[in-house]
Amino acid sequence: MELQSYLKENWIKQQNTELNELEINDPLYQAEEELAESPAFFFDQDKFAARVKKVKEYLGENIPLTFSIKANPFLLNCLPETIAHVEVCSPGELTICQKMAIAPEKIIYSGVMKERTDIRRAILYGVGILTAESLLHVKMENDIAEGMGRQKVILRLTSGNQFGMSEEDIEYIISHQDRFPNLEFYGIHYYSGTQKKKVKQIEKDMFHLTDFLSSLEEKYGYDPKLVEYGPGLATEYFKAPYDQTEYALLGEVSEILKGFAESFPLGIEMGRFLAAPCGTYVTQVKDLKYSNETNYVICDGGIHHLKYYGQTMAMQVPPIWVLPGIGERDGSVRGMRRAAYVDNSRENDKKQSGAVAKERLTGSQEATEEQVLSVMEAVVDENDYCICGSLCTVADILVREAHLPALHVGDYLGFGRCGAYSVTEGSALFLSRKMPRIYLFSQKDGAKLMRDFVATDKLNMADPLKACLSGVSLWN
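== Diaminopimelate decarboxylase ==
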């Protein structure tokens, strides 16, 4: 069972779904070692493989698929064979590929800023394709490739921002290929933005590329061997049904792409669309408080780990699950929760529900403690919560208002569809809090630790030895 399906069926609640009871014998439910310390990301490799397979089914066998690893480099650990290329956009990402023994011929080495050392290293490693985003890139790549065989290069066409080159610059390069004898201008690279929800946006890109490529053929006889295109299809984060919405868009777009591929050698590049659905971020409830008519949840994670594109100041609600604290997993969720509340007489529950409970006692002004508790058991079954992180800033709000089962300190919250960018985009060094654990999850192997917690305090202070050698005292 894939991680997202497991969570949906076996954790207490997903937004916009019915409340389910836990099955105590399920593997993640019993994974005390993995959940004993949080926060952590779980990346479902089965889900990732299924996503890639689905996209390939829509595109067909004749359109190669590239995975942009900046979306989630940890997924290189489970890269499906059907991925033709991986896009690498920095020297650090190239290092990751080298350490992961990714075949160099599968790599498209991209990036808006390339230095000579970066280009030399990429060529020496044997990357299959380099991109060029400026005339300077082309000149450097040609100079460095001398004596190492002709290097395949795709020229990036700008979409109106700092990335890529103008049509005029590309035309100059194509019309003066004799000046760059060490390069094979293998094709064109084009990407015009992310989270596209309208088919017309893709059609516009295809018309633009068709006109430009036709012009290059007419003027210079240029026949590209690859047109690498990033469609930037929208990932649905906040409104179910998630997959159905995305695949409906993909279905319409794929017909346009296959039509284009009949005239030009199209390759499709994706990052977010492939990776987003496979990620879940788990954080533990550490404190609960009620003030100004708001139920605040304080978690051990925060916005330094978790980010959703377009969440609009935490107003949008992603899929959320709740898992009881490990020590409380001994019965049905509803039964356990009511017993825990009554037995412990939790102050937050009383504040949240006491007034409502009395109102429900058929107008009675005086009620016994037993009567109030009886009604409050039902009232506190669910509540609205403002979910906050561990950072000392008012900006650290994961969700401004989420309707969830009654929470208690020690419970775990799972945030879904965060498999793309979130793990690397967060402000991880802020306040010197630890970076989360990373797990790969599969039905076959369960949860496998890929990276342990990383302390960040040492990154936010001077190196004692270097400071000492520089004559600086860190202890006054």
